[in-house]
Request: fold
Amino acid sequence: MTIPLEEHFRIYRLDLPGFGESNIEIPLTVEEVSEILHGFVLKMEIDKPILLGHSYGGRVAICYAAKYPVEKLILVSSAGVKKRLKFSKRFKVKLYKILKKCHITLKMGSSDYQQADDVKKKMLVQAVNTDLQEQMKKITAPTLLLYGSEDRVTDLTIAQTIRKRIAHSTLIILEGCGHFPYLERPSYFSLILMSFLIGDSHGV
Reply:
């Protein structure tokens, strides 16, 4: 059984630019999207928000928390660490670019990337190529990192690096989960989240 957050907090669920029902005409960097988020926080007169970001949203949350005060930060299956690609991956990228010039389509990337329009694809590529480790070092808020042990999109080496870069962070690995632990083990995810938000953040 999941614990309804609405009973304890006021919840805002945002469609970031280019996601959900939020359309976009030009690609934005994660830093620019974080500034849009800050504009929303100011408009709603929220003092030190608690941010939860999944995957790409986690990148935006990292940029925000590095620059503006937040009460707590939760990163779920988030990246932000640029890794050198393995030879096989570099080969696939090069092949993809060659075939694209020949007007031959080869499916590559995550399901989000494959389903994205051209503008969103540019945003996702830019995000993947942006290393946020310096921003992570500036985050002072208590931070919870939630990652699935079977995540094939954001592997655990990235989670471990983020844990080292963010000073007051706790890493929880959800066994048997992939990239969407809140859907795969919702009750367990909810319990961990509420423990962090309401209880002692260092006793998760």
Observations:
- The longest strand covers residues 143-148.
- The mean pLDDT is 85.
- Residues 87-101 form the longest helix (15 residues).
- The chain has one domain: 5-203.
